[in-house]
Amino acid sequence: MNPEVDETLRLRAQTVADELLARIDGARAVLLATADGFALASAGEPRDTPQLAAMTSAIAAISQVVSQTSDLGEPQCVVVDASRGFLLVRSAQYRGTAVVINVMTTRQALLGMAMHVVNAAARELEL
Amino acid sequence: MTEPKLVFTGPPGAGKTTAIAALSDIPPIVTDVRNSDASLAKTHTTVGMDYGEVKLAGDERVRLFGTPGQERFAFMWRILARNAMGLVLLLDNSRADPRADLRLYLQAFGELLRDTPCVIGVGRLDTHPEPSLDALADELEQLGWVFPLLAVDVRQRDDVLLLVDTALAQLEARQWQDTQS
After folding, report:
1. Burial class for B111, CB neighbours closer than 10 Å (0-12, 13-18, 19+)
2. What is the pTM of this model?
3. Hey, which of A40, A71, B33, B171 has its CA 20 to 30 A from B139?
4. Which structural domains are found in chain B, ordered by start?
């Protein structure tokens, strides 16, 4: 974990992680990372948090260049539809710091609802 | 017409993104974000990959892929190494231990290097002459590898082109050898 990260950011990230885990039906784990791939906070049980944090930032960054190259603008939410669940990745800003939210759910989660909750959390973080 | 894939790797700050931008004929695709790691003296860092293309003589289009430098992105190293036809390892002689960097990246890409050529470019030798190219070559030999080692300034297009040419020359030599055996 990056020791340089501001404590306020870490605390806020923990609150967001806890809230998302509680508010999304079927959520298994939530991870918040800095845009350069350091874990900020997690809730539930993500496996191997440092690896996942780096992967989360890579997904967010690659999605952004793919969206831009395809003339689709800025990506909101990236969805990985996997055999045993969904993975949602959403970039956000908190007081000028770029962060990435990663929510992992079971197959039973309602995808649209989960995306809505993640997007709302990202917007709230930016207020 | 072939379209070889070359992968640029090496420690953070060695200039992978800069090298690809210096050589690419197309605007390079970069995934830089603001760096939050105070132990790295740079404002931005690659978290996904870099991509560029360069057309060489004979209509050969070389695809240039850059990896993130930090070890926590080692999963991207493995993804980007798939089907690579050459590896360009960039070292930064101003870092604490360039020999350790050499060992780390050659080990990480060891599987690829069993049948793929590699060239090593060493940057900032002018301001940081130690370890010398000879010392790095010795280290390389101890690790059981023989690869060309060149002093480079990755901001200079010609220097990057030389690295790419050197990797491709090895590739051609191997392909020629294969036809002979």
Report:
1. exposed
2. 0.91
3. B171
4. 5-180 (3.40.50.300)
Residue A4: its pLDDT value, please? 62
∠ Cα A107 A112 A117 (to 5°)? 100
pLDDT computed for residue A1 by the predictor:
52
Distance separating alpha carbons of residues A3 and B73, to the nearest angstrom:
18
Q: What is the helix (H) or strand (E) element at residue A126, kind and residue range? A: helix A111-126
pLDDT digits (tens, 9 = 90+) for B83-117: 999 999 999 999 999 999 999 999 999 999 999 99
Maximum Cα interatomic distance, chain B, rounded to a whole number of Å: 53
Band the pLDDT of B66: cuts 50, 70, 90. Answer: very high
What pLDDT is recorded for position A46? 79
The three-state secondary structure class of A43 is strand
Interface residues of A toward B, Cβ cutoff 8 Å, are: 2, 4-5, 34-38, 50-51, 53-55, 57-58, 60-62, 64-65, 69, 97-98
Which domain does A78 fall in, by range?
7-126
Q: Which helix (H) or strand (E) holds B33?
A: strand B32-34
Residue B80: phi, psi to the nearest 5?
-75, -25
CA–CA min distance A25, chain B (Å): 30
Number of A to B CB contacts under 8 A, please give it. 62
Is A101 part of a structural domain of the chain? Answer: yes
Which residue of A31, A34, A36, A52 is the best one to mutate when testing the B interface, meaning the one whose CB has the most B CBs within 10 A?
A: A36
Residue B1, pLDDT > 70, answer no
Which structure tokens are listed for B104? Answer: 């780390």
**For residues A109 and B107, what is the distance between their CA atoms, to the nearest angstrom?**
41
